[in-house]
Amino acid sequence: MPIDPNFKKNLTIKDNHNGHAVWGEIEPPNKLGIHGTNVAVDLDICYGCLRCINVCTVNVFVKYPTPGNPVSKLKVDPINENDCFFCLACEMVCPVDAILIERKSSGDTLSSLLDY
Ligand code: SF4
Ligand code: SF4
Prior knowledge:
Number of domains: 1
Number of strands: 7
Number of helices: 4
Strand content: 15-25%
Mean pLDDT: 92
Helix content: 10-25%
Bound molecules: iron/sulfur cluster
CATH topology: Alpha-Beta Plaits
CATH architecture: 2-Layer Sandwich
Order of helices and strands: HEEEEHEEHEH
Shape: globular
């Protein structure tokens, strides 16, 4: 299941981690919630393939050890989400759709943003 595209309406902020919000129910190490707001990563979907880290040219993500988590002992954390310039590359390469990048307006879709 991909990250909830309406998580800001459906969930509330439950914590602050390394300067960014954590959304949804949190029960570490099993349930970790959605980290970040403009660059949101559902850590309950992420399995730590690190493709997003490799593709982001402004180092928004860092490796995030998650010992004891049933999905993966390593995930990513969008600690530099304010540096994002909304290229959407990370969102496109994530195999499990764990990332949601803020759109410039509510009508933006991935295809419309790419249709230059
Ligand atoms: S949208 Fe682009 S700049 Fe923003 S976090 Fe993803 S890869 Fe980095
Ligand atoms: S690309 Fe997706 S699954 Fe891979 S580390 Fe990034 S958020 Fe996690």
